[in-house]
């Protein structure tokens, strides 16, 4: 799925703080595109959200359900990280959960109140006690725990992290993935990724030889399971066949091709956008609501006719915008601030203001992240970040770093009113 050389270059992406800027290239390592199932899922949810998170590297607000799930995973990692019996006692498991839970405050974990955080902590204790009692009779040292690997395949560097891997003999393995959220029926797409990558991973053969003293020619995933910790339910999936894996991998390569092609148009959706941390930065949304111009009118035209109509309107809009910018620039250069000018048909009042412009996207984002200012930035419009600079609680060091990337220019606001009696 290589991109043809005859294709036009991708359009410029909306600038984070003003005018359009060239979209930055996706992160690569040794010419390979860094990839994972979570990255693919986010791109499929919304390409622009992927860009904000993985390319612009704008931090999201902390999510309490991630914090809760991470602490449960950490406790279970502690439980199974033994080379031989005995396993940790229940009290030790709960202490491991407590220690990890207390590493961050309730706000850092994404809770709004300490009471809600305490309630989830108690829920976690109950959950782990039930898990321990349910599984203690079958405890045995696993093959691998929290196994992370990076595999090069088809121009990608794909990372998977398996919560637990059991060795079944003969080069066959079982992959277990813990889930702590809602007990919903899951599609096995993530497990397809595990199967594909783990069977290509040369390190797994070495791990089997090191652990069990037997060399195998290949590794084969016999089965995979989601283990829903809150309900103690395992959802077992048998090995996917070549057709399933092939269809899934075509989907992976399609997403990767779009990322390489710098295709990051937003895909608005009521539910997804309502909870998105980046909606105030999205050019299609103001406070989570679509621009009026983006609303689709009802029509009976077929899709081909609509495409042509859209193209003609876009060309006209671009031509008019170019003319508008040119004439507006001429007015700005000739007019005085606060002055009013009357033509034969319209009257214009011109107001000039100073504004900041930030041209180096990466440098500004780095400053925002370094000084934990991204939350303030997310509340701003796309046209400026002067509110951060003018904030009373910004440190002088942060202000200095932002000013190094800033250029002050004059913004001109032209208010046009049509004269009465003219149509």
Which features does this protein show?
single chain, 423 residues, alpha+beta, seven-stranded mixed β-sheet, three-stranded antiparallel β-sheet, 14 helices, disordered N terminus
Concise account of the structure shown:
This protein has 423 residues and is of the alpha+beta class.
Question: Would you kindly provide a written description of the structure presented here, covering whatever features stand out?
Answer:
- This protein is of the alpha+beta class and 423 residues long.
- It has 5 domains: 64-138, no CATH class; 144-257, no CATH class; 271-295, no CATH class; 299-334; 336-423, no CATH class.
- It has helices spanning 37-45, 47-55, 64-80, 90-101, 114-135, 189-200, 202-212, 242-260, 270-274, 303-334, 361-370, 374-378, 386-390, 396-404; strands spanning 28-29, 32-36, 144-153, 156-169, 172-179, 220-228, 233-238, 285-286, 289-290, 340-342, 346-358, 406-418.
- α3 (64-80) packs antiparallel against α4.
């Amino acid at each position: 799925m290589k991109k043809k050389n005859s294709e036009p270059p991708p359009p410029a992406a909306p600038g984070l703080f003003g005018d359009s800027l060239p979209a930055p290239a996706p992160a690569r390592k040794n010419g390979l595109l860094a990839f994972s199932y979570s990255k693919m899922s986010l791109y499929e949810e919304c390409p622009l959200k992927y860009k904000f998170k993985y390319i612009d590297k704008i931090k999201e607000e902390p999510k309490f359900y991630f914090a809760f799930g991470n602490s449960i995973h950490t406790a279970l990692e502690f439980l199974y990280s033994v080379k031989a019996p005995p396993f940790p006692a229940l009290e030790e498991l709960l202490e491991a959960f407590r220690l990890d839970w207390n590493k961050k405050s309730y706000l850092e974990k994404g809770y709004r109140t300490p009471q809600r955080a305490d309630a989830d902590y108690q829920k976690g204790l109950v959950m782990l006690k039930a898990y321990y009692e349910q599984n203690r009779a079958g405890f045995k040292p696993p093959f691998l725990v929290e196994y992370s690997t990076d595999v090069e395949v088809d121009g990608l560097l794909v990372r998977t992290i398996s919560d637990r891997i059991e060795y079944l003999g003969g080069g066959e393995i079982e992959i277990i993935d813990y889930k702590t959220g809602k007990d919903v029926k899951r599609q096995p797409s993530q497990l397809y990724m595990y199967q594909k990558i783990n069977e290509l991973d040369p390190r797994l053969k070495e791990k089997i030889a090191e652990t069990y003293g037997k060399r195998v020619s290949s590794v084969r995933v016999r089965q995979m399971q989601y283990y829903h910790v809150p309900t103690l339910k395992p959802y077992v999936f048998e090995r996917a066949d070549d057709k399933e894996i092939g269809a899934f991998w075509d989907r992976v390569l399609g997403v990767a091709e779009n990322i390489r092609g710098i295709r990051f148009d937003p895909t608005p959706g009521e539910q997804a956008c309502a909870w998105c941390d980046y909606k105030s930065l999205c050019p299609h949304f103001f406070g989570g609501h679509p621009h009026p111009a983006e609303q689709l009118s009802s029509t009976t035209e077929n899709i081909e006719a609509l495409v042509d109509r859209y193209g003609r309107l876009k060309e006209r809009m671009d031509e008019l915008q170019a003319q508008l910018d040119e004439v507006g620039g001429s007015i700005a250069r000739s007019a005085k601030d606060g002055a009013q000018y009357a033509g034969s048909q319209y009257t214009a009042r011109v107001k000039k203001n100073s504004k900041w412009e930030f041209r180096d996207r990466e440098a500004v984002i780095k400053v925002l992240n370094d000084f934990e200012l991204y939350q303030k930035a997310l509340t701003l419009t796309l046209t400026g970040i002067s509110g951060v600079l003018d904030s009373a609680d910004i440190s002088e060091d942060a202000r200095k770093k932002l000013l190094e990337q800033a250029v002050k220019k004059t913004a001109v606001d032209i208010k046009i009113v049509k004269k009465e009696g003219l149509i």
